[in-house]
Amino acid sequence: MYFSTNLKLLRKRRGKTQDDLANALGMKRPTLGGYENNVAQPGIDELMKFSAYFRIAIDTLIKVDLSKLTGNQLYQLENGQDVYISGKTIRILATTVTPGNEENIELVPEKAKAGYTNGFSDPEYISELPVFRLPFLSDSKKYRTFQLNGDSMLPIPDKSWVTGEFVQDWNNILSGDAYIILTMNEGIVFKIADNHIREDGFMTLYSLNTIYEPFKVHVHDIREVWSFVHYISSEIPDPVIPKDQLYRTVANLKQDMETLKNKMEMRG
Asked: In which element (H, E) is residue 32 found?
């Protein structure tokens, strides 16, 4: 755990005194001093304050010895290139390959989703997933297929198999595009993304089915992102009725109702 030494290092690089930083974060100077001297440990609320102030992920503040980084690495870190946030450089993906060293596409069926949330980074767990290959996809990219559950992305049917391409740098997530996202709180979700990671550290996720409300997911809650490539389904999506045909259908229904009403009155 490197939080105390990292905190002192980052504060000094900003040219701030303990009083300066404590005032900026709304805490007492002795409390801050206790964190830097490793005689007290911050709670999650305090960690989030430090993370937001320095624009560095909590994982980095705790797990990475910043004193071992080069000046250029620290500069990149302080300018939004945190590997835990951007997904760059050290985000290692557990994967499987064929005997010819070609990337497989692993299948994550509905029944495996709960296990995937905990085992996504475990090579042994990933090696137990079913695999296949699609010849029309690029050999130079990594793909994984997840089974859809529910109707939140209609007209894509429930139980469809949705394939995604692994996204290394989360800053490259395009607002308005669809992504499969592994989160620690929501599990695996398939949504349309509105990306605010670079500015505010979160994404807003939308369903195609508008009865579902959008929700925000913080970057600290995200573990993997896969860009939508295609889906496979045994069902044909419901047709979209053209507006003029819809009008004719409603008019015919009204006429049928009127005819039925007249017949009932005549019999009465």
From this structure: helix 29-36
Residue positions counted in the chain: 268
Distances (CA, A) of 10 to 4, 49, 53, 211, 220: 10, 14, 10, 45, 20
Q: Please say if the pLDDT value at position 79 is more than 70.
A: no
Q: How far is 194 from 205, CA to CA, in rounded Å?
A: 6
Q: Which domains does the chain have, with CATH numbers?
A: 3-86 (1.10.260.40), 105-232 (2.10.109.10)
**What pTM, to 2 d.p., does this model score?**
0.59
Q: Which of 64, 85, 82 is nearest to 2 (CA)?
A: 64
Tell me the two tokens of residue 20: 């300066």
- Tokens (6 digits) for 230: 């295609």
Edge-to-edge strand ranges of the sheet holding 161-166: 131-132, 105-108, 143-147, 161-166, 222-232, 178-183, 187-196, 202-206, 215-218
Give percent of the chain above pLDDT 70: 87
Amino acid at 18: Q
In this predicted structure, the answer to whether residue 28 has a pLDDT above a threshold of 90 is yes
pLDDT of res. 89: 45
